[in-house]
Design brief:
With about 350 residues, this protein is an alpha/beta fold. It has a single domain (about 15-215, about 235-275), classed as TIM Barrel. Helices cover about 40% and strands about 10% of the residues. Bound molecules: iron/sulfur cluster (2 copies).
């Protein structure tokens, strides 16, 4: 998109109604995938309380209904199966409260170590009205989760839910698993590059740190003239973390608002009226991460000499700088999204 088109698109931009919402039940994950755009891992914490999940869910339902839409909720993380009792409690409580059924539960299947446990858990989710199961597997996940667990989860999932209700991301990796843990660093880098070429991933969170250096990087000016109106204002998709921070669907760590005293519907209304006053949204809507860079330079940010692999790599690098200096804490956080590796 050229500079003129970008400016026109930003000028006319309006916040779309949120219709797809992922509740990130925790930042904990058994894995530490190099491509994780949320930056989850075994050393991360945060557990969404049952009451928090219900309040968020109710408000999301009300927001969609007020605009003649139906909210679609998915449960994710981190790994939502980390605390099985909590996951079931949330699904059961939402059902008892008459909230919209869970559209999807996402997992990497690390917990599927045994046929009996796998079957009983999936049968319970099915009985509680969960519509679809999404199982993630690729070269990045396969460093941490053996393919046989994924196969078990998928096969039993298909038997329980029916094959049309089990989604595997991605089949090609399940058919031809790559045990990246056994590769030397050059082979691992090659396997990761090949995976990125097959399935495009956003280079945010940990991916900005670990995958971007494997790709061709260009100076920041290469990303001038773009904007992120589609991603931050028009995607209809948000994620809400365990602390009730609302993020654009693909941009974990950009806080659109925090629910609690305010409902999600309040946050949406306020953002719709005042998004031009949100320091990060206003910048990326006007000129993408290149515009955010210009604003960060005024605060002391220096460009990465090696350049950036994508607009999201640039955005993440700039936001990490701002987070570390405590700039715009109401818009950039929480720490889990910006933690560097231990
Ligand atoms: S990508 Fe998924 S499985 Fe991997 S670390 Fe992130 S949350 Fe965990
Ligand atoms: S550049 Fe930033 S705001 Fe734009 S899509 Fe990427 S992470 Fe989101």
């Amino acid at each position: 998109m050229g500079t003129r088109e970008a400016a026109e698109s930003e000028g006319a931009a309006e916040l779309a109604v949120w219709e797809f919402a992922g509740l990130l039940l925790t930042y904990w994950c058994n894995a530490r995938c190099a491509f994780c755009y949320v930056n989850c891992g075994p050393e991360r914490g945060g557990e969404m309380r049952v009451e928090t999940a219900l309040a968020l869910w109710r408000s999301l339902d009300e927001l969609a209904a007020a605009h003649g839409k139906t909210m679609r909720i998915h449960l994710s993380g981190g790994e939502p199966f980390h605390d099985w009792v909590r996951l079931v409690s949330i699904v059961r409580a939402a059902r008892a409260a008459g909230l919209t059924p869970v559209d999807k539960v996402e997992t990497n299947a690390f917990w599927a170590t045994d046929d009996g446990v796998t079957r009983s858990r999936l049968e319970l989710l099915d009985a509680l009205g969960v519509r679809r199961l999404v199982v993630s597997t690729d070269v990045f996940h396969q460093e941490f989760v053996p393919p046989e667990r994924v196969r078990r989860c998928v096969e039993i999932g298909r038997a329980v839910f029916g094959s049309g209700r089990v989604i595997v991301r991605w089949w090609d990796f399940l058919q031809n698993p790559v045990e990246a843990g056994r590769l030397d660093s050059a082979e691992r880098a090659r396997a990761f590059r090949a995976a990125l070429a097959r399935h495009k991933d956003r280079l945010a969170g940990r991916a900005a740190e670990q995958l971007a250096p494997l790709l061709e990087c260009r100076p920041a000016e290469a990303f001038a003239g773009q904007n992120c109106v589609k991603e931050v204002l028009q995607s209809q998709h948000v994620h809400v973390d365990p602390y009730a921070h609302v993020f654009p669907g693909t941009c974990a760590g950009i806080i659109l608002g925090r629910a609690g005293e305010r409902t999600v519907a309040d946050i949406w209304q306020e953002l719709r009226a005042h998004w031009r006053e949100h320091a990060v949204v206003a910048a990326v809507a006007a000129g993408g991460s290149y515009e955010l860079l210009q604003r960060a330079k005024a605060l002391g940010y220096e460009e990465r000499p090696g350049g950036y692999a994508s607009k999201c790599h640039l955005c993440t690098h700039v936001r990490r700088f701002l987070f570390e200096r405590g700039v715009w804490p109401e818009f950039i956080g929480p720490g889990e999204c910006y933690a560097t590796e231990l």
